[in-house]
Amino acid sequence: MPLHRYTPQTTPCKLCGDGFDHPQSADAPALTACPTCGQQVARAPFQPTFTPKLLKPLSVSDAKTAGFKVFKRTSGGEFERQ
Ligand SMILES: [Zn+2]
For a Cys-Cys bond, which of 11, 37, 62, 78 suits 58, CB 3.0-4.6 Å? Predict the structure, then answer.
């Protein structure tokens, strides 16, 4: 379940500081009041945590483009630079 960031509408919340994270599904209605203190809150714009994902296996040319040295294992068990 994704975490949604809520920030208090007026002053920083005494109990939750400058905001809190609330786990809820993406299509659930947003909270309007802090569950801790009852102060009006607003859902902050979604800020995805940066999690790099490999969408596809890297090819040799991708690796070369990214500046990696590419080595190929030869039949003799040695590595040779491509
Ligand atoms: Zn609060």
Answer: 62
Number of CB atoms found within 10 A of residue 34's CB = 20
Location of structure tokens 């040779």: 80
The residue assigned the tokens 């905001």 is 19
Cα of 49 vs centre of ligand 1, distance in Å, is: 23
The CA 26 to ligand 1 mean position distance, Å, reads 21
Higher pLDDT, 60 or 67: 67
Q: How remote is the CA of residue 5 from the centroid of ligand 1, in Å?
A: 12
Does pLDDT of 75 surpass 70? Answer: yes
